[in-house]
Write a structure and sequence with these properties.
The structure is a homodimer.
Chain A (H helix, E strand, L loop, with lengths): L1 H7 L3 H9 L6 H14 L5 H8 L4 E6 L5 H16 L3 E6 L5 H13 L4 E5 L3 H8 L7 E4 L9 E4 L1 H14 L6 E4 L5 H16 L8 E2 L4 H11 L7 E4 L2 H13 L9 E3 L16 E3 L2 H16 L7 E4 L2 E3 L9
Parallel strand pairs in A: 1-2, 1-3, 3-4, 4-5, 5-11, 6-7, 6-8, 8-9
Antiparallel strand pairs in A: 10-12
Helix pairs in contact in A: 1-2, 1-3, 5-12, 6-7, 8-9, 10-11
Chain B binds a DNA duplex through α2 and α4.
DNA sequence: TTTCCGAGTGTTTGCGATAACACTGCCGCT
DNA sequence: AGCGGCAGTGTTATCGCAAACACTCGGAAA
């Protein structure tokens, strides 16, 4: 910086100003400095800057499995939004969502002095972890449940599930079976709640939900059993991979979809439109969730207080896996 | 740090030593310092440390679409490996893989003084970008093509494609059609190369490859056309989503898989085993690639020179979408 | 006994930037 | 003419840490 200042014939302070508050420097001086910066290929030293300002311009994201469609898309959305606000994103992925591992991940990020952290933790065991966070660090949760002591951005799972269920009921099905996600997952219980309340609202019988583990395999296994029950004409599966397994199991057992059984999934993964038949499913706008989470975090960093929940509405995408009951 | 030193009755320098080179401090002194660190909840200041050491302990990853299975898994592998080496990972995602956008992404990371960068750029247009990188920054490329001026870690696409093709030929198919990825993708051309050379080795006719765009949709569209050609009994699709589209198109047209047409995919996404029929495909170990890339980068950071290529062998996973020709 | 060595610890300095404050002219007001 | 104010710039102090070098002291070697 000293060199740049020398070349431009000004003091180091002025160089700093040109970079951080250009309007405070007379245009011609500014131009000289900028030219010097160019010529010397000067780049401000990040460490020195954040040492003195106390901020780093880096945000952290803690997540469990960034390989899954949901977390990956959310992360992507966060990164995109962060870029627009001139923040960089660092990641800490976890093996499990325990209180301990969350604390570890946050700690790793914090030791690199991130300005704030977004935790993607759609699991109930994470809530505990969220309660024991350092309170001097701005934190936002994505997809978290009720009663979490930090701001939350999430898709309204219950609403999406209710839409899916009502869609099936509107097609004349007497009730809707549910292939749920594993217990303890916030998303799973939200979807169960929405499904159940939609059935209740119509006075329908509420079957016991079948519990899967998000995998296509679990959908397949449940599907094999369900195929033998002629009562089952409509199934709401809690995600698309399970729907895929379900589709295959039903087909193998000679059931036709949607003629014999209608199926609705959840997520709208890019392939869902090319399942056979194309899957009716609930689209989650993960990018939007990521953006909202980032906004909440920036607010927190900016000193805004309060526990906020930002809910994003999902959207039912009707394709060909659902049809009028016959 | 001063406070910790005071509490432990030592100088600040000793505290620093306890943290960075514990063996140079007498055990009892060390214990006193550690106790003081505990008591005061002291955490070293990252900015100050990297200001004086010149290193940040942060690596950057530049990638285009971290939502896709391949890049997402690679990123995950990199992060896991980085964690083991006490590095943190920052990400910069790109809209497109042009020379300009790559330069921008690298610049964003560099301005936060990352110690090195891994670029996930399976596109030929990226090669140009890789050629114009600042040479004072350690860079490693994942999935890059030949002639790239930086170390590369990648799956051996040609080898995987050849395996897939030989598998189909060994089942008695006279030749194998190929549904390829889009031109300009390194992976796509590698797979074409492997497929072609396997056919050549057996003296088979080499059909013109059909060019898709990785999406299930493009697989579906090509599939609809292919379904009418009775000559086509074996298809090697360049990824799993295209295989999915292909499967559906063939089924819709009344073709049976694998009885009438055998199909092999590429990737082994988690759902592949639950396609209908379960997909024979080539598994890429992205985690391994990520780990190798990280190792290369650490070598570079450590001062090791030379253009290295680390190839990871893919593996053929035989399921039920392939059968003896009838 | 003296000398030397080295393990363990302290002191000083500087990393590169910004914040806070101080200075310099010039302008317009009284 | 004299003063205040303000835009533009410079000076100084400081952020928290580690590198380099200096010091101390006890034990081994001469």
């Amino acid at each position: 910086m000293e060199d740049v200042a020398g070349l431009a014939g000004v003091s180091a302070m002025t160089v700093s100003r040109v970079l951080n508050a250009p309007e405070k420097v007379r245009p011609e001086t500014r131009a000289r400095v900028l030219a010097a910066v160019q010529e010397l290929g000067y780049r401000p030293n990040f460490a020195a800057r954040s040492l003195v300002t106390g901020r780093s311009g880096v945000l952290g994201v803690v997540s469990m499995d960034t390989t899954l469609y949901g977390p990956a898309s959310t992360l992507y959305g966060i990164e995109r939004a962060a870029r627009q606000h001139d923040y960089l994103v660092s990641i800490a992925s976890l093996q499990a969502l325990t209180r301990r591992s969350i604390a570890e991940g946050v700690e790793r990020l914090r030791s690199q002095s991130v300005d704030g952290v977004i935790i993607i933790a759609p699991h109930e065991s994470a809530a505990e972890g969220l309660r024991h966070l350092p309170k001097d660090l701005p934190v936002v949760d994505v997809g978290g449940g009720e009663g979490v002591p930090v701001p939350v951005a999430a898709v309204d799972q219950a609403s999406g599930a209710a839409r899916a269920t009502r869609h099936l009921l509107s097609l004349g099905h007497r009730t809707v079976w549910h292939l749920s996600g594993p217990a303890n997952w916030i998303d799973a219980s939200g979807r169960i709640r929405g499904w159940r309340s939609a059935l209740e609202a119509e006075g329908c019988e509420i079957p016991e939900p079948l519990v899967g583990d998000w995998s296509a395999q679990s959908g397949y296994e449940h599907g094999r059993r369900m195929a033998h029950d002629p009562e089952i004409t409509a199934v709401f599966a809690a995600n698309d991979p399970m729907s895929l397994g379900l589709l295959r199991a039903l087909r193998e057992a000679g059931k036709r979809v949607p003629e014999d059984v209608s199926i609705v999934g959840f997520d709208d993964v890019p392939e869902a439109a090319y399942f056979w038949p194309p899957l009716t499913t609930v689209r989650q706008n993960f990018g939007e969730v990521g953006g909202q989470a980032l906004q909440l975090l920036l607010d927190r960093i900016g000193g805004v207080e309060g526990d906020v929940r930002r809910m994003v509405e999902p959207e039912l995408v009707v394709r060909e896996s659902t049809a009028q009951r016959r």
